[in-house]
Design brief:
The complex is a heterodimer of chains A (233) and B (235).
Chain A lengths: L1 H15 L3 H34 L5 H11 L4 H12 L14 H26 L2 H9 L4 H11 L1 H16 L3 H7 L9 H11 L2 H26 L7
Helix pairs in contact in A: 1-11, 2-5, 2-8, 3-5, 4-5, 4-9, 5-8, 5-9, 6-7, 8-11, 10-11
Chain B lengths: L5 E11 L2 E12 L3 E6 L5 H8 L7 E6 L2 E3 L2 H11 E4 L10 H10 L7 H11 L15 H15 L3 E5 L7 H16 L3 E5 L12 E6 L2 E4 L7 H9 L1
Parallel strand pairs in B: 3-8, 3-9, 6-7, 7-8
Antiparallel strand pairs in B: 1-2, 1-4, 4-5, 9-10
Helix pairs in contact in B: 3-4, 3-5, 4-5, 5-6
């Protein structure tokens, strides 16, 4: 019990005294995950929109495929990309393995199925009349396409926050693709794994607290976006 | 004022799976027309309107605009969406204020130069001044109908299609809706209304189409499509 209390106190000291190493790890984590989510969102919106409103052969198969990818472990994504990016792999010439772009690619693939699946559900639950009203008011398909997400923004925001929550806390793909290199590819989850294995619980707890605070922040944001949702007596 | 036009729809057919909804329906429409479409539930009134609006792909349809025939569906839909506007039975309100809904419609009409003034005029025309900053979600059914008609004024289509526009409206809202539709017709806009209750529209319509057995039965000789009628009688 003493270890837990001492480590927690030390963790908060590290956070609030501006420990450079800790804040650098936090910075890397946020940079990589933010770039990954922002690069995945546009593609996910287009895919989910066509899955929701399109009428083409293989649509149901694609929906099932994306739903299946929801349960793919991060290490499997990591392993697949590792093989592709390793020197012997087909993309080895790009020399991306153990770099931040490789981590971004891994996190991109991890969050894409979540974004597609949740955005697809949001589009499907959205009123089809939004699209039709835009079209019948004279909107070109691209403009109508922009209108519908703005009508279903709470569902899409929920998708984005869920995707972000998934990638900022994943360890498998980041460890395999980033290699946990200090000052470069060491992010919060890989640092927690490393510090815990070394017995430096304070650093692990400090970084864990940041993740926990982030989760709280994202959920609060989601609550705000989704509105009251209460029934007036 | 809307320029003169003459649009002719021929051979409109639509099935949903094995369920035949429309079979070779046809009719003509020109400026100042106000046509009421009647028929039982499931007769295909809404489907017909949605096809005319370019929102539902028919199995077959040919459209002739001022003697020019448009086909295939891609071209046809483009033509329909350009000149026809469809109002849902329960008009959809975009998120945000009532004013935002009208600004959205004004933005999409390239003919509108002074957007703010046009929106203000539409708000006054629909008698919605007191509600312009209200959230669209808080509006009543009648108010939403008026917003939808104000959007139609800003859109200024050649043909306005309305699906049961007076259902669930009180007498006052119904009268306002009829008054607004009359103004549209006087400006040259053609109006097509699907309804269960044609009497409500009084002297507004000048044509009546009745959908029966998936076909259009013509009541008004001026808009009769003789070919189609002959074919129907022949069968």
């Amino acid at each position: 019990m003493d270890v837990l209390v001492t480590s927690t106190l030390e963790a908060f000291r590290l956070l609030f005294t501006g420990n450079v190493e800790i804040w650098e790890i936090i910075g890397i984590s946020f940079r990589v995950s933010t770039l990954a989510i922002f690069s995945a969102v546009p593609l996910a919106l287009v895919i989910s929109f066509f899955l929701a409103y399109g009428n083409f052969f293989g649509r149901r198969f694609l929906i099932s495929l994306f739903n299946t990818f929801l349960s793919v472990p991060a290490v499997v994504i990591g392993l697949t990309l590792f093989i592709l990016l390793s020197r012997q792999g087909p993309m080895g010439d790009f020399k991306l393995l153990f770099t931040q772009p490789a981590m971004i690619a891994g996190q991109f693939l991890l969050c894409l199925p979540i974004l597609v699946s949740m955005a697809h559900a949001a589009f499907q639950s959205a009123d089809r009349r939004a699209w039709e009203t835009a079209r019948t008011l004279g909107a070109k398909p691209v403009y109508a396409f922009i209108t519908v997400p703005s009508e279903t923004r709470s569902g899409l925001m929920a998708a984005m926050l869920a995707g972000y929550g998934r990638i900022i806390s994943e360890v498998g793909a980041s460890m395999m693709l980033g290699g946990n290199i200090a000052h470069y590819t060491r992010n919060i989850p890989t640092a927690i794994a490393l510090e815990t294995s070394k017995g430096n619980f304070a650093e692990g707890i400090a970084l864990g607290a940041v993740l926990l605070f982030l989760a709280f922040l994202l959920n609060s944001l989601l609550q705000y976006v989704q509105g009251k949702g209460s029934i007036n007596p | 004022m809307i320029d003169n036009f003459h649009i002719s729809f021929r051979g409109i057919s639509k099935s949903f799976g094995k369920n035949l909804v429309l079979d070779n329906a046809a009719f003509n429409i020109t400026n100042h027309d106000c046509i009421v479409i009647t028929g039982e539930n499931g007769a295909g009134k809404t489907t017909l309107l949605r096809i005319l609006a370019g929102l539902e792909k028919p199995d077959h349809c040919q459209i002739t605009v001022d003697n020019t025939t448009a086909e295939p569906w891609r071209r046809l839909r483009k033509r329909l969406l350009k000149s026809i506007m469809y109002l849902h039975q329960q008009p959809y309100m975009l998120a945000g204020t009532l004013r935002r809904n009208l600004e959205y419609a004004a933005k999409l009409n390239p003919a509108i130069v002074d957007r703010e003034s046009s929106v203000n005029k539409a708000i006054h025309w629909a008698g919605l001044q007191a509600l312009e900053t209200h959230s669209s979600a808080s509006l009543s059914g009648g108010q939403k109908q008026r917003v939808a008609l104000a959007r139609a004024r800003l859109r200024d289509p050649q043909i306005l299609l309305l699906d049961e526009p007076t259902s669930n409206l009180d007498t006052e809202s119904r009268e306002k809706t009829l008054h607004m539709l009359r103004e549209f017709r006087d400006c040259g806009m053609a109006i097509v209304i699907a309804t269960h209750d044609p009497e409500i529209f009084g002297s507004l319509p000048n044509g009546n189409l009745h959908l029966d057995d998936h076909r259009i039965i013509y009541d008004d000789s001026r808009i009769v499509d003789l070919d189609s009628v002959r074919k129907t009688q022949h069968k």
